[in-house]
Structure formats: C-alpha cells, structure tokens
What we know:
alpha/beta; Aspartate Aminotransferase, domain 2; 2 domains; 7-stranded mixed β-sheet; 4-stranded antiparallel β-sheet; pyridoxal phosphate binding; kynurenine-oxoglutarate transaminase activity; Kynurenine-oxoglutarate_AT
Amino acid sequence: MRSKLPNLGMSIFSKMTGLANQYGAINLSQGFPEFDTPEFLKRRLADYVQQGVNQYAPSAGIAPLQQQISALVKRRYQANINADDMVTVTSGATEALFVAIQSITRSGDEIIVFDPAYDSYKPAIELAGGKAVHVALSAPGYMIDWAEVKRLINDKTRAIIINTPHNPSAKTLKLADLTSLKKLVIQHDLYVISDEVYEHITFDEQPHLSVLRDPELFERSFVVSSFGKTFHCTGWKMGYCIAPSKLTVEFRKLHQYVTFSSFTPAQFALADMLAEEGAHVDSLAQFYQHKRDCLVAALASSRFQVLPSEGTYFLLLDYSQLSELGDVAFCEYLVKEIGIAAIPLSVFYDTPTGDRVIRLCFAKETNTLLAAAEKLCQL
C-alpha cells in the first residue's frame, strides 16, 4: 500500500511517554495535567449521563454551550459572536484545526506555518493537497520576521496559521504581530487559522490578544479553542471553532462527516461550568503562573538557561552549557540516565535550526516539579 503520509511515524509524545514508562522517569514531556478536572464539572457530567443525555447532539453543538461560548468571548474579548452561526463544538481542538485546514485548502495551495509548529498542521495540509511553507523561528526570542513572511507570499498562498500562546516556545504574539498579520492577509486576500488553545494561560498580567478582538482580522479567520486545556480534561477531547458565518458554513460541511457531533453529556456539563463557575477561567493564568514560577525558582541553581515562558504550561531550557548532543539524543539521555522525560524542539521544525533547547510541561503537582528540578540541578 502506498502511504499518503510516508514520512510520518510514531509521534514524539508517544515515544517519550513510552520511554518514561519504561524507565520509571518523571514525565514532563506530554502536555497533559497531572491534577484532576474540577469537581463541579465531573459531577455535572455524571449527572447528565445518569439522566440519559447520551445520544447524538446537534452537529454544531448544543445551543446552551454555543451561547455560553459566545458569552465567554464577549466577556474576555469584548467581541459579539452569533452563537448559532459562528460557534461549532468539535471533538477536540485537533479536529477543529484539521477541519479548518481542509475547508480552505485546495490542491496546490500553500499554507504558511511557523516552526516550531504543532505537529498536526503539516499532515492536515498535505492530506488536503496543499503544501506547508515553513518559517523557522529561533531561540531565545522565537520572534516572527514579518518581512520574511511577506517575501514568501505568492499567488499560491492561501492562508497563514498562527498559534498564540505558542506551543512549544511558550511565547505570545504582540499587537505589532497582529497588525502585521492583518496587513498581509488583507493585502493578499488570505485566510487565518488561529490556534488559541492556551488562550486563558498568559502570564505577568499580559492579556491574550485573540484574533477575535479585531473585527477585520476575524472576518478572515478560524479561531480554535480547547476545553481540555482550560478545564484539565484533555481526555474528553472537547474543543470548538469560531468563524464568521460564511466560513462556518464551509467548516460545518466537513465537520459533519468527520465526527458529526461531539460527546453530548460533556457539552451540557461544560455549558453549566461556563455559566456557574466562570471564576475558574479567570484564575487559570494565576494558577499556572504559580507553577511556572515554582519550577523556574527550583531550576535557578542548574546549568540550564531557562527561557522566558509568556504563556501555555510549558517551559523551555537551553542545555548548551551541558552537552553537545542533539536535542533528541539529549532527551533520550535524560529519560534513561537522569529519570526525566522532556520533549526536543527540533521535531517541530521542517528544517531544525540547531538550537539546543528542550521543552518541559509544568502542568504537574508541586512535588512532581520539585522532584524533577532536583534531578535536573544535579547535571
């Protein structure tokens, strides 16, 4: 059989988690919380299951959840979103990204992505017959050179994918970035896919600059979000996509044949959570900033250079002073010899830059972070 994705194998997340389990290492590699989903949300899920709310939901999502998403957007970003026509509930953010990419990508189209990039973008583009055009960002700042982006745009360019707060660099886009992006997409009639799954996790009192805040930019955009990241329930695979009505029509044409609809009792539980427990969303940044600061302080005596984390629940470490190994080999050494599982950044690049940087996930209990830091400080 001829593979449609011949260059893809096991993901780095599966590989490192497998090694962590094999060697009994502390797993700071895969990005999932070590702590549990809020009790209120778990109770509401169980209640709806017991009530028999277990059949198909409307393909676009149940109306109460769509309405609560619209209210959340209004409260957080001062944007007015029509719940019926613009909000689609999906089976995780990865499904939303896949469907958005498939909705607009035609054979021969080029989609600009920024490396290090979340690893689902490129396969989705290629399955649609398109080509991912990579712009490599470098440590320590991982800043976008918009002049370079402009040079790459041609008559085949269809869209630009952005991710803020950014996984894996833990950087956030600034107002100047969104201004440059808007100028390019309007000038060249492009679309934007804005991956904002860590939208509620920004640090040092810096607001998340969502595409939803800018009406002109939003008119050309799909904005993707994740309940899993917000409510510590990554295993539920619940997300959503917000897009203008004309784009949502195309998005839903594909969505109905990918998953049709998403986990019904979870939709009702999430609607209740948003309606009654809004403080959880508002406190999320402070919650994760405390964990970031805890890990950074515990690593202060190490030989790693800790790069600033502006958002997400990831922290980057430059290990240049410790080893000449490439980052994949260094991560294998860490998990086998030191007992720490981390993620190498080079796997998120089409053409790696040679930076010696690894990613840690700090969505863990404090004792786990301190135990990991103790091991890393011994290097």
